[in-house]
Amino acid sequence: MASGKSFGEVLEDAERLTAEEQEELMDVLSRRIAERRRQSLAQDIRSARGELRKGRCKPATPDELMTEILS
Questions:
Q1: Tens digits of pLDDT across the chain (71 residues)
Q2: Is residue 28 part of a domain?
Q3: How many beta carbons lie within 10 A of that of residue 25, not counting itself?
């Protein structure tokens, strides 16, 4: 963490917040986590499209993928 606080210290700090502030903190953290996940997914998609363009993979249906996984 940038502040150098441990996870436990951050939890203790959160306990000192009002209930409303704790709820707002949870909302902010949830939005940030969702945004990081979206960014990660977007990067994975860009990478997969690049591999497809380079011929390193081919399109497949879900059934084809399951057949390959289970064989």
A1: 466 999 999 999 999 999 999 999 999 999 999 999 999 999 999 999 999 999 998 888 999 999 999 98
A2: yes
A3: 13
* Residue numbers of the domain that contains 45: 7-70
Number of domains in the chain: 1
DSSP 9-69: HHHHHHHTS-HHHHHHHHHHHHHHHHHHHHHHHHHHHHHHHHHHHTTS-----HHHHHHHH
Count of Cβ atoms closer than 10 Å to residue 46 Cβ: 10
Q: Quick check: is 24 in a domain? A: yes
Domain contains 2: no
* pTM (2 d.p.): 0.69
In the chain, the amino acid numbered 12 is E
